Amino acid sequence: MKKLQRLGTWLSSYLLLLPALAVAANPPTPPPAPIRSWDNVVTILNTVINWLFGLLIILAVIFVLVAAFKYLTSGGDPEKVKSANHSLIYAAVAVAVAILAKGIPYLVASFLGTTVTSPVGQ
Prior knowledge:
Oligomer: single chain
Order of helices and strands: HHH
Shape: elongated
């Protein structure tokens, strides 16, 4: 039983680190140094949003894993199930904010009359 618990602990630790390792394999590039036009502003905004998107997706995965763990260990306790439900709601909010964050550069670009360009190297 102890070996199974250790295996579960190791596996859950690995799964929690997996999204961070995926982002580390292909990190977003820093914004270009000179800002000479509105296109550069949109590019910088796009880079910041890409970072935010990656962090929010990692956070959502962690919240889903925590909620799953809470459901599995609740044993029918209503308070623990309620806590797991809140964790799932937080994960859904993180995904919704991430999706909204991906749309912000396009909204700003349409107001400024420019196009959204990918950061250098992507």
